Amino acid sequence: MSKLLEIGALEVAYGASQVLFGIDLTMDEGEVVTLLGRNGMGKTTTLRTLCGFVPCKAGEIRFAGQSIVGWRPDRIGRAGIALVPEGRQCFPNLTVDEHLVAFFANRRHSAAAWTPARIYELFPRLKERARNLGNQLSGGEQQMLAIGRALVTNPRLLILDEATEGLAPLIREEIWACLACLRDEGQSVLVIDKYVEKLLPLASRHTILERGQVVWQGSSAALDADHAIWHRYLGI
Fold first, then answer.
1. pTM of the full structure
2. Best label site of 83, 165, 179, 189, fewest CB within 10 Å?
3. Rg of the Cα atoms in the chain
4. Are residues 75 and 98 in the same domain?
C-alpha cells in the first residue's frame, strides 16, 4: 500500500503556549486509523492543523506524497481531505438537499462517485428529511448530513472529529455501520471517538495522545490485549 498521510515531528502552538510536541502519524491508502486520548490532549488540534485551520510551528505534513504545510484550508480540501467537524456545523438555512448539492464535486472523475443520490441510499433518513433545514434536524440526522456533506466532495481522506459524540445509542450504531461500509469500499478514514470497543474492529491502527505527545501506537489486536492502556490514557 502507498502512504496517503505522513505527519512527522509536528509541533503546534497557540501564541506562547505549545500544545503539540512532535506528533508522528502515518496511514496507508484505504486504511482506517484512529487518534485517541482524553479531552484536551491535542487530538482536535492535530486535525485542525492537518486541515490548514491552525499553522504548524515545526514538522511536516505530507498528503499523497506532497507537503501541504502552509496550504490554505480550501486548497487542502480540493486536494482530497474532508473533515466532519466536532459539533457537525450544518448550515441552519440550507436544506439537506442543498447541503449535498452545494458540496458535490467529483474532481477525480470516479465512476463510483459519491452523489447526493448515493448519500440518500447510505442514510435513508436523510432522504426523508431532504427538504428540512439544517436546524430542523436531530443531532443524529445532523451527523449523518455532516458525513454525507463530506463524502460528496469525494475525498481521498475522510476525517471525523468525535464521530458519535452526543448521539443516541441506535444512531451511534448507524454511524459505526456507515464507517464499516466505507472501510469495505476502500475509503481512507481518520477518526476520533471515545468508544474504543467499537473502534477496535473498525480500524487497523491507533495512536494515543497525552498532553500533546504520542504515548502509544499499535494495532487493534495490541490495544485489545492490553486494557491497562485504556485505563491509563483513555479514562475507561
1. 0.95
2. 165
3. 17
4. no
